[in-house]
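Protocol step 4 of 6: structure prediction from sequence.
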Amino acid sequence: APATLNVGAKVFDAEGGEVGSVESVQGDIVTVSTGTARAGLPKSAFVSREKGLTIGMNKAQLEAAVNGAKAENTAAKDAAIVADAPIKSSDGVVIGTVSKVAGDDVTVALSNGSAAALKKSYLGLAADGSLALGMTAADFAKATQAAGSAQASADAGAAATGTAAATDGTEQ
């Protein structure tokens, strides 16, 4: 029977074991939460049985598939984060290139000539396999300008303090 997919509905495996529940339904994709993992499955993966919505995997299999996909994505992203790799904004604009990678920190040579430090977790892979940032170019420019202004203010404050100390030293 065709499955009726409602948010909150319990999802079971073929043996009747509970897998999780429907978290959301968007178009043809149904997000199932097991409590520790979330998976987007096509509506065609569900059938209605006596106990309720049923899929062809048990909870452990679904969680292993999700965790395996996450590990593959992380490995692919880490392999893409190399010197001179372009980084695009969410709207497809190249904002800069990777200049240095140290642990979880990525230094980006921005298109405007300045540099920005990002965490690896801020980067993802676009559909074409290129590195992508989860914000538009305009939002990124605003964020880096705000950070730059704050740094300039701190530098100006340090310079003013240094001047005052030098003045105090010469008055004695």
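Step 5 (inspection) to follow. The first strand starts at residue 10 and ends at 12.
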